[in-house]
Amino acid sequence: MARSRETKIELTAYDDLFQTDESREEAKLSKIRDIPISEIDEFPDHPFKVLMDEDMEQLVESIKRNGVMTPATVRLKEDGRYELISGHRRKKACELAGLETLKCEVKELTRDEAIIVMVESNLQRSVILPSEKAFAYKMRLEAMKRQAGRPAKENYSPVGNNSEFATSSDELAEKVGESKNQIFRYIRLTELVPEILQMVDERQIAFRPAVEISYLTEEQQYTLLEAMEYNDATPSLAQAIKMKKYNQDGKLTSEVIQSIMEEEKPNQKEKPAFRDERITKLIPKTVPRGQETDFVVKALEFYNRHLQRNKAHER
């Protein structure tokens, strides 16, 4: 006798079965509404900066003429207020334009889902600072690991081989189109003191030396800052690696940092004798580099003799 086979029949929900494309669109639109800006809170630890630049001015003018074309994304919080997930520039532009509401799409998202959406939407920007990528990648990687039930905190290192950590970082690398090692390097920048991280954003310190500097303690980084200012120079990759090695060996003192920063670099340009533009613009370009001080001293000597002659004539 043949076995009776059980056949599973999945029934389509009544509402889905009779819902038209038009009604589905209406349901989606019902979640798009004008929300008072006063009821919208910023995203906690939002890593992306809202700059008051020419693009912002153009966005303000566009919103004054046409309103907000693309809704911002928010989620409803437990206290009844809204949390802004994407659209921080649009919100600021609306405030500058004198509007009291912001067109938003309300989404039901968990904290980690909100982090992932926030990072994804902001990574579409044409210009992203290293510090923005650093904190965005870190937030998103930790959110992905929590979603997968993995520990959120790890020691971010380009040579990390923890299998669970590798799984999340592989997923992130595929999503953002960067190598896993490069993602690790960006995340290392979050260990920099704010002053050095700002120098990275302003391209005063190159990316790779900055990654090596991130392994120094906070105190060592501030000592390095002083040495950079004193020597009017930033560390090369070789110098940064040397400091990291001394630190790993427990031998990185303030004297060692200063000594490393005093090393002459290949193709290093000679430092200008004077930084004050009031002086440099008066030195003829025909004066050879390195002889600016002699020129200024001779000019001052000549001027002093001129003053003395004038005093002699006045007697």
From TrEMBL:
GO terms for molecular function: DNA binding. Residues 33-123 form the ParB-like N-terminal domain. InterPro entries: Chromosome_partition/occlusion, HTH_ParB/Spo0J, ParB/RepB/Spo0J, ParB/Sulfiredoxin_sf, ParB_N. Keywords: Chromosome partition. GO terms for cellular component: chromosome. CDD domains: ParB_N_like. The lineage of its organism: Bacteria, Bacillati, Bacillota, Clostridia, Lachnospirales. This is ParB/RepB/Spo0J family partition protein. PANTHER family: CHROMOSOME-PARTITIONING PROTEIN PARB-RELATED (PTHR33375). SMART domains: ParB (SM00470). One of its GO terms (biological process) is positive regulation of sporulation resulting in formation of a cellular spore. Belongs to the ParB family.
